Amino acid sequence: MKTTFSNINNIAYEGPKSKNQLAFKHYNADEIVAGKTMREHLRFAVVYWHTFRGTGSDPFGAGTMQRPWDDGSNSISNAQNRARVAFEFISKLGAPYYCWHDRDVAPEGKNLKETNQNFDAVAKVLKEEQKRTGVKLLWGTTNAFSHPRFVHGASTSCNADVFAFAACQVKKAMEVTHELGGEGYTFWGGREGYMTLLNTDMKREQEHLAKFLHLAVAHKKAIGFKGQFYIEPKPKEPTKHQYDSDAAACLNFLREFDLLPHFKLNIETNHATLAGHTMQHELEVAGAANALGSIDANTGDELLGWDTDQFPTSIYLTTYTMLSVLKYGGFKTGGVNFDAKVRRESFEPIDLFYAHIGGMDAFARGLKIAAAIRKDGRLAEFVKNRYASWDSGIGAKIEAGKSSFNDLETYMLKKGEAAGSSSGRQEYLENLINEFI
Length: 437
Ligand code: XUL
Ligand code: CO
What we know:
By secondary structure, the protein is α/β, with parallel strands linked by helices. The protein has 16 helices and 14 strands. It has 2 domains: about 25-375, Divalent-metal-dependent TIM barrel enzymes (TIM Barrel, Alpha-Beta Barrel), CATH 3.20.20.150; about 380-435, no CATH class.
């Protein structure tokens, strides 16, 4: 096997004083934080697509990545060899999970039958490598957006044959996920949206999307796959408007079509930004609906307006993310999946290590800081006290559903004014967070 990782040892925890860029300074997998090991809290996953298929190309230039193990061909043997290299990387990094799209791991054949055979041939190696290294599949997904057949979308295509083809692809990818012991399956609606409403029957397309997801739920049951289904919100790119535009839109869609019990959300940082939200906002929307499933960890560039998928290094970002994750009970089936790519300029294989180590350390710090803020208790206490008027008297009566507009009028006519609100203390709270950063 041709690999360039042979000169790199397993990445070890060396502590915050270490100057070694090929060591963890904060991620200490076995260290207990808030009752669980960091490994159990964070459940890191490496993505196959950016990390092993990313070429570094952009709209203005060709690929730049040096990947000496990859012969650039679409052969099965190249795909199988790439899988072995991927597992060498993931296990040296010490990430417990990985994620793929069907088309990342195996090449498309000349028809569906051949494509499925290619997938099986590579899945066999994935299974061997999972067994050899202990690395597990966090979730699988389908690429139903790159091939020209998906020009008008997949399940929302105007062409019913495209819906059928995408269904076959999801069926197969779900079956392979099941075979590999995957803990979840993600639906990101690559081109499920529109470029212009002039040619789009939006109602019909959304009904088709719901029908598609119901068929997936039925197939899940049929094959006995127990993993969690996720929807990944994103507002735009590649289309002008994607139907799964943000957490709130996804939840509304799932509720409208009776799909909510079957899905949780996979929240991605850069998608939140594109939707005009913070990651924290999206996590809170999902968490409040008991639908926070997993996260795609990355970040955007504040001066670039697209999905740059950079590795997360901001401690504020990871702190706020982990505050929400811990608040809603931590990951069950989900995890911190690095849907992130090294920059086009960072083309050497070793950059893959630097990028992931940095992301893992940033999340380890976010976890420790969030746990410390929760243990300190002042933030939660402040929020609790802020709503104290709801814990007794008129507030408790309203919350218990025991009041009417007439009651409230009697109450307020007697009282005369709604006074007594206290300061929101944003600056005080921002300073409190900074005490821990
Ligand atoms: C696209 C994106 C996808 C999904 C899986 O922006 O995030 O890679 O995570 O299809
Ligand atoms: Co993603």
